[in-house]
Amino acid sequence: VQLVESGGGLVQAGGSLRLSCAASGFTFDDYAMSWVRQAPGKGLEWVSAISWNGGSTYYAESMKGRFTISRDNAKNTLYLQMNSLKSEDTAVYYCANKIATLDYWGQGTQVTVSS
Fold this sequence. Notes:
By secondary structure, this protein is mostly beta strands. It contains no helices and eleven strands. It has strands at residues 2-6, 9-12, 17-24, 33-38, 44-50, 57-59, 67-72, 77-82, 91-99, 102-105, 109-114. β5 and β6 (57-59) form a beta hairpin.
């Protein structure tokens, strides 16, 4: 299983970024996928999740209305569109999934929001 995130960077408050996660080594469209993040000095925080076919999406309360999760099963890719970014969104963002009893994570992509 390999998950490779990209798309992070430095953005001003109020700006937007689109994160991508390229998945390989498993049947992508068999599994729900998630985004989690870790801010400096803090623990992991769940951000969003999407069902195997994209039909159901879920968001942490503070992300509702600002973030949109999506997936392209033909491209084995997961996305996170982030709008109206705030300084408190600064974190390393990871895509993740769970296969059987094992959790898989990518290497993460840094998002820094300047105020």
